[in-house]
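Single-chain item
Fold in token form
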Amino acid sequence: MSLIRPEITAGLARWREVLVGAGVAMLGLWVFTFGGLFFQGLGVLIALLGAAMGFVAFRRMQFHRDGDAPGVVEVTEGQITYLAAQSGGFAARSEITQIDLTFSPAGRAQWRIRQIGADPLTIPVSASGADALFDAFVALPGVEPSRLLAALNRSAAQGTTTVWRRTALTALT
């Protein structure tokens, strides 16, 4: 038996990274109060680091979608893998040319990842492990996190939107 209600535990778990960032920022402010130029400078650096951690964690938390979509997403250093009973596939991050947010016939949001020389990979937004796609997408050149988050707030009636498209690569020969 837990002393904390399950809803509160779930809420704290969802906000844990943001809370850690806030805690690091508070630690920096505490170090700042020690006085002296060294500790004040160190405190400001720690507080800025905590604020940056909290900001990134908040963006990542906004990307999360609850749901029961089939499949599992795994992101490794250079590859996005989606495994499901009916579909699945992989996309090398270096080969991705376009990312769209589309909707299934049932109205569920899904990412469609187009890549060079392969069929598009479609991943439901609420698949298990789909949160890791935020970091994978943001690592692509020119991706704007605000466009990713805005796309997730679209409804099926608004239709498909292109979130990112790779600019033409120059030939090396």
Summary: The chain has a mean pLDDT of 90. The two ends are 67 Å apart (CA to CA). The CA atoms of residues 75 and 133 lie 7 Å apart. The first strand starts at residue 72 and ends at 75.
